[in-house]
From TrEMBL:
Positions of the catalytic residues: 82
Similarity field: Belongs to the gamma-glutamylcyclotransferase family.
Classification of source organism: Eukaryota, Metazoa, Chordata, Craniata, Vertebrata
InterPro entries the record matches: AIG2-like_dom, GGACT, GGCT-like, GGCT-like_sf
Protein name: Gamma-glutamylaminecyclotransferase
Length: 156
């Protein structure tokens, strides 16, 4: 199992969460909530209002999201869904645990006690330069006060 941190449309209550609970795509077990240890710019960009975490460590905010434990099948699905490696790149990042729900072996307990876990995160280094000038968010909600509603793939 691999640990994945999601910060956008795959979170609970967001438009693509349905994929995280679709066992035909693999298994994803909610572990808890967290935020990036380092600051990153989280922007909403493009004509479909997609959330992107720009891989510019030290700029922006500590981005909030959810931590999942996923199997290999789900990880392959997420790679494809996220357009990896062209649109997003899957990289390991340090995530501060805000609230831990995962119950498991000593490794899980120790990770939660230390407050920081390593997770795969889909961020991007392949973005138009003007995205750096967009507003930075610390958390994403598709129906947030930003007014930029996400456009589902099936509606594009």
């Amino acid at each position: 199992m691999a640990r994945v941190f999601v910060y956008g449309t795959l979170k609970k209550g967001q438009p693509n969460y349905k994929h995280m609970i679709n066992t035909a795509k693999g298994l994803a077990k909610f572990q808890g909530r967290g935020r990036t240890v380092e600051k990153y710019p989280l922007v909403i960009a493009g004509k479909y209002n997609i959330p992107y975490m720009l891989n510019i460590p030290g700029t922006g905010h500590h981005v909030a999201g959810e931590i999942y434990s996923v199997d290999d099948q789900m990880l392959r699905f997420l790679d494809e869904f996220e357009g990896c490696p062209d649109m997003y790149q899957r990289t390991l990042m340090r995530i501060e645990v805000v609230e831990w729900e995962g119950k498991g072996g000593a490794g899980e307990t120790r990770a939660a006690a230390e407050g920081v876990v390593e997770c795969f995160v889909y961020s991007t280094t392949t973005y138009p330069p003007e995205w750096v000038g967009l507003p930075y968010h610390d958390s994403y909600d598709s129906s947030g006060k930003h007014g930029l509603s996400y456009v589902l793939r099936e509606s594009r």
